# Entry
Amino acid sequence: MARLDLSILDFGHAGAAVDLVAEADRLGYRRYWLGEHHSRWQCANPLLLGALLAATSEGIRIGSGGVCLDYQSPFRIAEDARLIEYLLPGRFDLGVTRGLGLSPDLRAAILDGRPAPDRQRHAERLAELHGYLTGRLPAGHPLAGQALPLSPGPPLWVLGVSPDSARWAARHGTGFCFSLHHAPDARQGEEILREYQGSFQPSPEFPEPAALVVVSLEWAETTAQARKEAELFAKVGMVGTAAECAERIAETADRFGVGEVMVLDLFQGMREPAVESFRTLAALAGLSPRLPAEAAGDG
# Structure
């Protein structure tokens, strides 16, 4: 497997995250992002849990992958992110997505009776968040020219699979994360990434384009066993042995023209299988360990 940066996306049990991020940190993964999911056992607040993980880890970047903008105030998200950046400078990424498919009752509870923003309003809220986060609010905005709380926030990453998301990220000079996990059969992904990279407008946070691709995988000792286990999951992008999945990760990086791939390991939430898969992939990728084993509580 050719050398590239590898990161981890965590959709697993919130209680397992402390141990898993310590192992990922030790092994040399670049980032560890947390998704927002409103279930009995997953993380509902990646900003809160992410801040705790950033404070208890060493060099790995922690992030949200991502905060659901449809359910929260852009100003409040920016305030929380600014606080994290102030206390833990250079350790956090703010990844933002639109929202999730929720049951009507849960959606109503989260929104507190408010209607979810439509697609056009989502773009406006994303621009508001970016302005609050960076302090670069447009002329005429009620808070333009006013001092915002603390220092500017962490870098913003737009999560999406559409050309509109890529164009928005390029126009505003943010990072862009394309999720093959959510769109494993996407046929225009390469074109979308090329458009982002080709039309990117530099910003203070990102002087150059910053793009990564998320893949989901299920591996086992044999390809047949992996395929059988993958039947338990709705979406799996890569299925096979560890070596086969590692090779496909490298091929995906080349195909999309990115230097970083983020892996959603579907064993996450079960500590021992997840730790073993982290170690296996790190070895196949040739990652350089960041911490001695005893520093990560592995001794």
Summary: DSSP finds ten helices and nine strands in the chain. Residues 294-299 have pLDDT under 50 and may be disordered. The first helix runs from residue 17 to 27. The beta strands are 5-10, 31-34, 61-68, 92-97, 156-160, 175-179, 211-219, 238-240, 260-265.
